Amino acid sequence: MRIVLDAMGTDARPAPDVEGAVLAAREYGETIILIGNEQAIQVELNKFDTSNLKIEVHHAEEQILMNEKPSLVMKSKPLSSIHLGMKLVKEGQGDAFVTMGNTGAAHAIATLSTLRRIPAVKRPALTAIYPIWGQETILLDVGANADSKIEWMEQFAVMGSIYAEKALARENPRVATLSNGEEEGKGNQLVREVQSRLRESNLNYIGHIEPKEMLRGTADVVVMDGYVGNIFIKSVEAAFSYLIDMLRQEIRNDIVSTMGGALARPAFRRTRDRMDPRGVGGAPLLGVNGVVIIGHGSSDAFAVKSAIKQAIRAVEGNVVAEIKQGLEKIVTETNA
Amino acid sequence: MRIVLDAMGTDARPAPDVEGAVLAAREYGETIILIGNEQAIQVELNKFDTSNLKIEVHHAEEQILMNEKPSLVMKSKPLSSIHLGMKLVKEGQGDAFVTMGNTGAAHAIATLSTLRRIPAVKRPALTAIYPIWGQETILLDVGANADSKIEWMEQFAVMGSIYAEKALARENPRVATLSNGEEEGKGNQLVREVQSRLRESNLNYIGHIEPKEMLRGTADVVVMDGYVGNIFIKSVEAAFSYLIDMLRQEIRNDIVSTMGGALARPAFRRTRDRMDPRGVGGAPLLGVNGVVIIGHGSSDAFAVKSAIKQAIRAVEGNVVAEIKQGLEKIVTETNA
Fold it and tell me: For testing the chain A interface, which of B227, B245, B265, B269 should be mutated: the one with the most A CBs within 10 Å?
């Protein structure tokens, strides 16, 4: 297997990216193709013993920064590591593309200029994978499509279910819709209509769930409109930071608590590790014609390695072909 | 001032409700009218020395349970404590109505059968008041109106701004729209259109904010569609519980952390107190023709007292008249 890694993805590029590639090549034994500024990559690679590892370097003249506008760089930087990396996958020289870089740019470049959509797919979806009580739950769409349409969301459900089954090894994945209540009649018009469609699908659809249920791990796949999904993941993240900041402040506020906080540090660390999205590393952009895994810009080498692992699982699960087939089946059934 | 309190609101009715009324009557010196099952209320009242307090009891034959369907009980239980309590306010025998009971029922009964809307109001909004870093932020709509329209949300902004100024004593309140990003073009179609409207209003509109910014206290009023708002408040709540549950589990997981956790308990308690919605007690249903404050069913006496305080602030701030005037001004300006 050949995984193409954007070496210019993280905020501290290319050090964590290159180190992550080394760790992954060592642990998984697959070929990692680093794409980006060749010289900068070499400087980092020289810090490691890579003699027995399958690591290749491809030069990319340009790089896309985190705050650059996707619609602009998609056209203005055709030689970026994201463009060239995805092209390698398109041309069959790589099996998957992994980046910790600009999510919007990766989405735009994949969808509109390189890999493009799987023919039957109406809109690719950005996903997030939450490690909930040690079990992975995939959420989609978390930001690619504000004002999602019913048909798009129906496809998100199918794609998410296939990914959960094939890449996350979840048997007969439980698919739910995020809503503000489980009862009949809850939700907005969009999500209610998606519900009736999914009830008639052959997915293991379990109905609406609230955020509380989701964080209890009651579903394997949670479908939502991209606007709501993006606000959802940002709300959960913001709530975590808020609570932690406040706890930290209060722990420092009296000497006994400060001592207690110091003693309980291992517990805090374990909690952080269990919730850590770095264990998952990245999540797939589903619906494009190739495996694309996108992680956080703040990723360290460990997170980069995990994202590469995620890509390996997606390739092994043959998710792109499965999605093609799964969606065609729906189209056939609908037309039957 | 005369505050009507639903004595049958909390899950443990009527004990916390009655005790909250006693605490409030003692602390604020205002008249509290307890409405509900007279006998049950008296049993609780007898536990306190109420000799110098202005507490009255009004009997209500029926009570509405937490899980009852608003649209049903609105018609089937015309003698409920919510119906009769709101009628007292409508008839001028009370200045505000406070309940810890069924939110949907309170909304339906206020809007459709007793107080009704302020004439210019298109849709009343449920609000939440967050104590963010010690400063109150009002969010609306948090659940009354899934599929909100632009004009409704524009009114939410006006009503929220008036409440923040008049009841929460915030000067020139900063009004924001909740979105998935601050940049131009972020958001869904609805929130983008609301943004252009608010930019042209005479409110102190500061633009879109993300959940992160909201929890930093960058706005006093945050406007959102009722579906998104309801998911937002539920997500934040779910994220807090999830993190706390996990921390608790990890703290118990080794003996040193357990000791540390015990020592740091005061810090945990202070954190909980600072985030505690009980300090706010309840939040207004804005847009109905009278002050209505709704709190949580799980409220204790302290939270009930705080909700009564919230009602007193709303009455003192003359918010209903201010909203009438504020919305008429918009209508006049729009037609000018």
Answer: B227
The answer to whether the CB atoms of B254 and A267 lie below 8 A apart is: yes
pLDDT in tens, B195-222: 999 999 999 999 999 999 999 999 999 9
What's the CA gap between A319 and B325, in Å, rounded?
59
- Alpha-carbon distances, residue A129 vs A139, A299, A312, B54, B289 (angstroms): 6, 15, 15, 56, 46
Whether B260 and chain A come into contact, CB under 8 Å, resolves to yes
Touching check for A262 and chain B: CB below 8 Å? yes
Model's pTM, two decimal places?
0.93
Min distance B138 CA to chain A CA atoms (Å):
16
Could you read off the pLDDT tens digit of each residue along chain A, which spans 336 residues? Answer: 999 999 999 999 999 999 999 999 999 999 999 999 999 999 999 999 999 999 999 999 999 999 999 999 999 999 999 999 999 999 999 999 999 999 999 999 999 999 999 999 999 999 999 988 888 999 999 999 999 999 999 999 999 999 999 999 999 999 999 999 887 778 999 999 999 999 999 999 999 999 999 999 999 999 999 999 999 999 998 988 888 888 888 888 888 888 888 888 888 888 877 776 666 889 999 999 999 999 999 999 999 999 999 999 999 999 999 999 999 876 666 554
Asked if B201 is an interface residue toward chain A (Cβ–Cβ < 8 A), one would say no
Nearest to B266 among A188, A235, A257 (CB): A257
**Contact at CB, B146 and A187, closer than 8 angstroms:** yes
Sign of the torsion formed by the C-alpha atoms of B113, B116, B121 and B123: negative
Q: DSSP letters along B267-279, please?
A: HHHHHHHHH-GGG
Transcribe B218-245 into DSSP letters.
--SEEE--HHHHHHHHHHHHHHHHHHHH
CA pair distance B74, B36, nearest whole angstrom? 16
**Strand-pair partners of B59:** B36
Question: Residue A294 CA to chain centroid, in angstroms?
Answer: 5
B193 to each of A227, B149, B152, B180, B227, how far by Cα in Å? Answer: 15, 10, 12, 15, 17
**CB of A329 less than 8 A from some CB of B:** no
Contacts of B275 in chain A (CB under 8 A): 243, 246
Q: How far apart are CA A121 and CA A151, in angstroms?
A: 10
- Find the residue in A nearest to B250 (Cα): A267
**Residue A27, number of CB atoms within 10 A of its CB:** 11
ipTM above 0.85, yes or no: yes
> Nearest residue on chain A to B189, judged by CA atoms?
A147
Nearest to A24 by CA among A1, A47, A46: A1
- For chain B, domains (ranges, CATH) are 1-121+287-318 (3.40.718.10), 128-279 (3.40.718.10)
Contacts of A262 in chain B (CB under 8 A): 260
Beta-carbon separation of A210 and B234 below 8 A: yes
Give the nearest partner residue to B180 out of A230, A253, A266, using CB atoms.
Answer: A230
Tell me the sheet residues that pair with A282: A295
| A330: amino acid identity, one letter | I
Whether B58 and B2 have beta carbons less than 8 Å apart is answered as no
A264 has a chain B CB within 8 A of its CB: yes
Assess contact for B20 and B308: CB atoms under 8 A. Answer: yes
Instruction: For tokens 């030069």, name the residue.
Output: A59
